Amino acid sequence: HQDDIEEAFVVKQILQHLATKHGINFQEMAFKEEKQCPTCQMTLKDIAHVGKFGCANCYATFKEDIIDIVRRVQGGHFEHVGKTPQSSYKKLAIKKQIEEKTKYLNKLIEEQNFEEAAVVRDEIKALKDESEVSRNE
After folding, report:
1. What is the pTM for the complete model shown?
2. Which of 50, 61, 71, 135 could form a disulfide with 37 if both were Cys (CB 3.0 to 4.6 A apart)?
3. What is the 3-state secondary structure (H, E, C) of the chain?
C-alpha cells in the first residue's frame, strides 16, 4: 500500500512538473469539466490525485483528455520518439534514406520513368550494402 501512495505521488509530481515546464496550468486544463467514468465514477482530478486510472473504462472515457495533455506536454507531438543511442544514428539515417528512396522509386515506376528508376534502384542497393557493412562492424 505504501508503494502505491509513493508511486501516485511521483506520477503527480512528474505530470505537474512537465505541465509547468511547458507553460501549461495542469489544474485548469485537466479539471475544467468534471467528466466521470461511468463504471468507477472517477474524474480526471481523481486520476491525477491517485496517479492511476480507476478501471479499464477510464481509458476510453478520458482518452481525448489524456491525448490532449500528452500532446501539449510533448510540444504538439503525440507519438513519443525517445532517445537514440549514439551508435544507432548512422543506421537510422541510412534506413530513413532507403525508405524515402523506395517511395520515390515506386513513384518513378508508376510514371514509367524507368531510366531514373534504375538510378534510384542502384542508390538503394548501395545504401543497403552500406547498411550491411555498418551492421557487421
Report:
1. 0.39
2. 61
3. CHHHHHHHHHHHHHHHHHHHHCCCCHHHHHHCCCCECCCCCCEHHHHHHHCCCCCHHHHHHCHHHHHHHHHHHCCCCCCCCCCCCHHHHHHHHHHHHHHHHHHHHHHHHHCCCHHHHHHHHHHHHHHHHHHHHHHHC
